[in-house]
Specification:
The chain is an alpha+beta fold. The protein is built from 5 helices and 4 strands, in the order ααββββααα. The protein is 38% helix and 34% strand. Strands 1, 2, 3 and 4 form a 4-stranded antiparallel beta sheet that branches. The chain starts with a helix and ends with a helix.
C-alpha cells in the first residue's frame, strides 16, 4: 500500500495523513515484492535477503528504499594471469607452474614482486 514504507520510517505518523501529504508533494510510492536484492560494486557484492523494497517517484525522480538482512562478499578482482608471465616466473625462479601461478595470483599479477618473493 502506498505510504506504508514511509509510515514505518516515521513512527507515530497517521498513515492516511502521510498518504495525503505524499500526494500533495507529488510523491508516489509502490511496494515491490522481492526475495533478494543484489548490488554489484567494483570490489564487493552486497546481497540483501528478505528485503522490504519501495520504489518512490518524486517529481519524476525514481529512488528505491531497501531494508533487510545485509551480506557482503568480496569480488575476485585478480587479473588474468598469462602463460607468458608464468613461463617468465619459472625461468627466473625454477619453481613449478602451479607455484608460479599461485604466487602470481597472490601478488595480483605483479611479475616483479612474484619473482623477488620466490628467489
Amino acid at each position: 500500500m502506498e505510504g506504508d514504507f514511509l509510515v514505518k520510517m516515521i513512527p507515530g505518523m497517521n498513515p492516511r495523513k502521510m498518504q495525503q501529504m505524499m500526494r500533495q508533494l507529488g510523491i508516489q510510492q509502490v511496494e515491490i515484492q522481492a526475495s533478494e536484492v543484489i548490488i554489484k560494486a567494483v570490489d564487493k557484492t552486497i546481497i540483501i535477503t528478505n528485503p522490504s523494497v519501495a520504489k518512490v517517484n518524486m517529481m519524476g525522480q525514481e529512488t528505491f528504499q531497501i531494508s533487510g538482512k545485509v551480506h557482503e562478499e568480496d569480488n575476485d578482482t585478480s587479473p588474468e594471469i598469462s602463460e607468458d608471465d608464468i613461463k617468465t616466473v619459472i625461468e627466473q625462479t625454477g619453481v613449478s607452474p602451479e607455484k608460479a601461478r599461485d604466487t602470481l595470483n597472490k601478488n595480483k599479477g605483479d611479475l616483479a614482486e612474484t619473482i623477488l618473493e620466490l628467489k
